[in-house]
Amino acid sequence: MEVRQIEHFLAVANAANFTRAARSIHLSQSALSASIRALERELQTQLFERTTRKVALTTAGQTFRAAAYRILGQIATAREELTDLHDLSAGTLAVGTVQTLTVVDLPAVLAQFNQRYSHIRIALHEATTAELVRSVQAAELDVAYVALDASPLPRDLTLLRGYEEDLAVVTAHDHPLATRAETTLAELADYTFVEFSAGTGLQTVIETLCAEAGLHRRIGFRATQMGQVLALVGHGLGISIVPSSIAEGSGLATVPIGPASPSRKLALVSRSARPSNPAARAFLELLAPRISS
């Protein structure tokens, strides 16, 4: 039995017509019929009931169709695994990330990947969560670090790893809040805000938190780059709510939010738990020790 015979069988089974099946696999109808007859002789059973109007599977044919799919799937997996042994000498790893990612030292991870797989080109794309989700769905990205809000993750994406990060208030050093050991969201009503406006994710999480606390923010400035947000805050033009790690590394005053510190969620997502791109699988394997720890 040859692989092509199994493929011929499935073409006829799916088309229920020899003419359409032959056309779909670019084979003459006589050659396709001969291939099916040879397969039936080898299996010593009739796979199709042939009439002048249609072709239908026999009971044996229905049983063999399920087995045929399994066989072709196993062959594809074997080929993929064998290719993996020799691949990673070329190819591309496409990774996306929101600009506020700090829970993972992505530059360090990519540097380690580059050192191990120096022939793989790394394409890093920074965008909003909505754009990253669309890019992963469209197979433009292998994996992406996205910021989550209350919206569910699309069904065609797989969450590979979830992260959680506390939020804090960042202010200029001469701001009235700068020396506070802690503040509540309600206490921020009298201050002007600098808002990080970069689509869904962090922005919508903060909007939800403030709404739940009854805080109606007075927004004086909006910026789409976190660096610009921090610069505006540093010049005393307002305060901002940002991830704690960003606040602590900004050189500005960081004020924790109490009594229960609010947080935002991030996730590493892909189209599958086992991406089809060998470079993406190698990237996830590199992350495995970090994830388990």
Which stretches of 5+ consecutive residues score pLDDT under 50?
A: none
Summarize the biggest pleated sheet: 7 strands, mixed
Instruction: Work out the helicity level.
Output: 40-55%
Number of strands: 11
Might you state the CATH topology name of the largest domain?
D-Maltodextrin-Binding Protein, domain 2
The averaged pLDDT comes out at: 90
Shape: elongated
Domain tally: 3
Distance between the termini: 48 Å
What is the CATH-assigned architecture of the largest domain? 3-Layer(aba) Sandwich
Q: Helical region count?
A: 10
What's this entry about, in short?
By secondary structure, the chain is an alpha/beta fold. The chain folds into three domains: 84 residues, Winged helix-like DNA-binding domain superfamily/Winged helix DNA-binding domain (Arc Repressor Mutant, subunit A, Orthogonal Bundle), CATH 1.10.10; 95 residues, Periplasmic binding protein-like II (D-Maltodextrin-Binding Protein, domain 2, 3-Layer(aba) Sandwich); 103 residues, D-Maltodextrin-Binding Protein, domain 2 (3-Layer(aba) Sandwich), CATH 3.40.190. The chain has ten helices and eleven strands.
